[in-house]
Design brief:
CATH topology of the largest domain: TIM Barrel
Number of helices: 16
Shape: elongated
Oligomer: single chain
Strand order of the largest sheet: 1-2-3-4-5-6-7-8
CATH architecture of the largest domain: Alpha-Beta Barrel
Number of domains: 2
Radius of gyration: 25 Å
């Protein structure tokens, strides 16, 4: 099938059926937190430098705009790796822009000054401080204490030519008056970006829209061109929905980490953000290497890819169910990969360098066995198909390719 109109007629898309479908005026950008917040996951390993550089190269290939490389204040080893990563980006001429997380204290920002001088890169300092009443109470802070930290640290950054993203932790539980005071001061002191954080995964999509719209009003009142970032966690599994809501409400950039790794239940997953934003038509970029990104991150940080993980899990495009497989096989036998990629899939595997896969199990039909045998170089005789299918029906799982090869080779006509 080649005609676009004919293809469109095969799928009625209720996602775009109304007249008020949202499209951002400017495509959103992305900040990759895998090598900072991702490494704060209780299950993550701190990868060797070579694997960090490999991840940066893949991010660059995917067009990810910025990446957080760590916390300079965490110690000398962290500062060493951050510097090496910055040097790598500088030498390779990467478009990927580096940033680092800094508390609103001079000791965290001072290393950024030295790194900028050594690399020549404009390294964005993401200066963060807690903002919610519960955090203020726990830390024994007043709003004046917080404003004092902001003024001292951002003034130092400005005086030393360091670009700043001002970050409020726990923004989604902070009081509006405090948010206004903090962001207004940060913007007056030269912050180029402000970041709204759902640090503990508290927000719903409605809450996300509310807080982003409120922050947007603060930025507009300042009269300055300050960009708004959203950094969300997945404690309630609302991370992707909240990211979409943030863009709809006026955020310019979304933070995420590979496989959603991060503190506690993790961050919004960068890979699924990219996939979904492309499916929504909000971005237009080649994501065929996105699977490489997921695999490289999984290997580097030691976090396995769940078998049922959307798009990139082993099961995402694999079926053994007879009815489903039969429809995919019919499409493939027509030579129509577009049709095969969509007849039983809401995500086109080909967009991400993947393909629909068919195996044989206890819920399979004849077409499963025939197709698998053909694809793997066997002649699907009636006897061999019965042998494969009979063994599968007697089993309790979907056979692996190795198991099916063993069965095929053991068949005696």
């Amino acid at each position: 099938m080649t005609d676009t109109q004919e293809r469109d007629a095969l799928i009625h898309d209720w996602n775009t059926a109304s007249t008020d479908v949202f499209r951002p005026a400017v495509p959103p950008t992305f900040d990759d937190e895998t090598l900072r917040d991702g490494l704060q996951s209780p299950s993550a390993n701190d990868p060797p430098l070579a694997k960090k550089l490999r991840l940066l190269d893949i991010m660059e290939g995917l067009g990810i705009e910025t990446a957080n490389l760590g916390l300079p204040g965490a110690g000398e080893l962290h500062r060493r790796d951050i510097l090496e990563m910055c040097m790598h980006l500088a030498k390779s001429g990467a478009r990927l822009r580096p940033n680092v997380a800094c508390r609103t204290v001079l000791a965290d920002i001072e290393p950024v000054v030295a790194m900028r001088e050594k690399t020549g890169l404009d390294i964005l300092a993401c200066c963060f401080i807690g903002s919610s009443p519960i955090r203020q109470y726990t830390e024994n802070w007043t709003i004046d204490t917080i404003l004092g930290h902001i003024e001292k640290s951002l003034t130092f950054a400005h005086d030393n030519g360091i670009s700043v993203m001002f970050v409020t932790e726990d923004t989604t539980r902070a009081h509006p008056d405090d948010i206004r005071k903090m962001y207004t001061l940060a913007i007056e002191l030269g912050a180029q970006r402000v970041c709204v954080c759902d640090t503990v995964g508290h927000a719903t999509p409605i809450g996300t829209r509310n807080v982003i719209r409120f922050v947007k009003s603060i930025v507009e009142a300042s009269g300055r061109d300050v960009k708004i970032d959203w950094h969300g966690h997945r404690d309630r599994n609302l991370d992707l929905a909240n990211c979409m809501a943030a863009i709809e409400a006026g955020a310019h950039q979304i933070h995420g980490a590979a496989l959603g790794v991060g503190e506690r239940a993790g961050n919004a997953p960068m890979d699924l953000l990219l996939a979904n934003f492309k499916l929504l038509g909000w971005i237009d970029r080649d994501l065929s290497s996105l699977g490489d990104y997921v695999k490289a991150a999984s290997e580097a940080i030691g976090v396995p890819i769940p078998h049922n993980y959307p798009v990139f899990g082993n099961d995402a495009f694999l079926t053994g169910t007879g009815v489903h497989a039969a429809a995919v096989v019919k499409a493939l036998r027509r030579g129509d990969t577009w049709l095969a990629d969509r007849v039983y899939s809401g995500v086109p595997a080909g967009w991400f360098g993947l393909e629909q896969r068919i195996s044989v199990g206890y819920m399979s039909g004849k077409s499963n066995a025939e197709f698998w045998l053909e694809r793997h170089g066997y002649t699907p005789s009636e006897g061999l198909v019965k042998h494969i299918l009979g063994s599968a029906k007697a089993g309790n799982h979907l056979f692996t390719d190795d198991e099916l090869h063993t069965l095929a080779r053991s068949f005696q006509p």
